Amino acid sequence: MYIITRDGRTTVITGWRAWLMFGALCVVGALVMVGAAFLLLGLTVTIATILLFVVPLAIAAALVSQLLRALKSR
What we know:
By secondary structure, the chain is of the alpha+beta class. It contains one helix and two strands. The protein has a two-stranded antiparallel ribbon.
């Protein structure tokens, strides 16, 4: 049973209409949760890709620049 009060009037929803509203709310809630899961999955994949490729490249660039600086100072 759903009770909605609007503009001083009270509407009571029961029976199959209440079940229909409950089903619609469940579908909307599930879609919101699936959307949030895909958003978090995308964020996780993006961060993992950055850590997998950018960090080793930065370390390699630092090592090469240190090697070039050592060769230049000779």
